[in-house]
Task: structure prediction
Amino acid sequence: MGTKRAVGVAAAVVGLTALSGALPAAADFMHADEGEGDISFLLDGEELTCTVYGQTSTTFQDSNDTQRITSDVSVRGDAGCAEAVVGVNLQGSFEPSPGSGNPHGFVAVASGPFVTTSFVVAGPTGSIRVAHFANFACDAGQCTAAATTSPK
Result:
């Protein structure tokens, strides 16, 4: 299960506007979600319990009408989990505008226990969904843990 956070940030220069001529800053809005998935498996006859942890955030910057999307995946758990990782990846999509129904995809892949991606797109986006995966070497061949995030 994920934890969603919505944060609105606005800076206002109250009482100083007349002195400095400064205008209030434009509002930035951030949405974030995190998720995790656990897996237990045998590696060389020893049981490991590992967690894939995914996090995705998006920040709309009103002043330049852009949206930054950042997503990552990492591995946590028993000693030995990071060494058992064959690779991690995330696969996501976002609507370039709210309600467009035209999702654009993105991916990030790494052979170690962590990967991140961050990029900027024009204007406010619509929904964002990301699947986060960690693949482990295990006695059964390969074992996979997954988590999903959807900050918006």
In short: The longest strand covers residues 28-43. Strands lie at 3-9, 28-43, 46-61, 66-77, 85-94, 104-110, 114-122, 128-138, 141-149.
